[in-house]
Amino acid sequence: MKELSGRKLAAEIKESLIKEVENLKSETGAAPHLIVLQYGEDAASKAYASRIEKNCEAIGIEFEYQQLINQPEKFKALLKKANKDTKITSIMVQQPLPAELKDSLEMINPQKDVEGITSASLGKLFVGLETLNPATAEACMEILDYYDIPIKGQRAVVVGRSNIVGKPVSILLQQKHATVTMCHSRTRDLEWELKNADIVVAAVGRAEMIKGEMLDEDSVVIDVGTNFIDGKLLGDVDFASAAEIVKALTPVPGGVGTVTNQVLMRNIVKSFKNLHRVK
User: Which pTM value belongs to this model?
Assistant: First the structure.
């Protein structure tokens, strides 16, 4: 079994971005600027924002964090202000959000939507137009490309149909001419689907749900899962049993998540370039 580590790929993307941001600062006199907006006191969201801040600092991206509690209208006003502020070139709205703020995701200026989560961004992805793709979905494709995994004509099975991973990665795989099957909690015979797949993307959000005996020996498995169980990070695939069966597999941690972090940084740089009309 070949382990598809994302660490080297992530390091290469990071190194390239550091140089690019330096050049952009020289060329434009400005830097990419990300604002992260959080509503409420979710500890995991706050920890994630801290990791993003460290990644931004390492690359030269300006970072701003705003947290509001029990002020929904002020939160929306802050988001509207960020949309109009020419200094701010990227916006992230942390989830989860309360019911009264669910529509705030659609308020994000699509040009600043570095997570690719608005209907405008996803719609462009669907019809094949240039846009900022969801970082995790893009990271899956980056890993396949980096390790020269054939996609054209291959049968790909995506387990999970979220708007930020499952659906977008299925579209990206189709754009590379894979034949894609979407699986989910209502799929009748998941094991049959997996056994007949050349490429499996596991993005269901259930720790070690997919066991080695459910997979084919010639399959390539991309594990998107990030499940914290008893303080340990686990994927959606049982790594130990799958490693005994499949041809290639991404580890957790050190796989898709590692690359996703840098793809997000690249989206931040892209949004800056789009807004400043820099090629």
Answer: 0.96
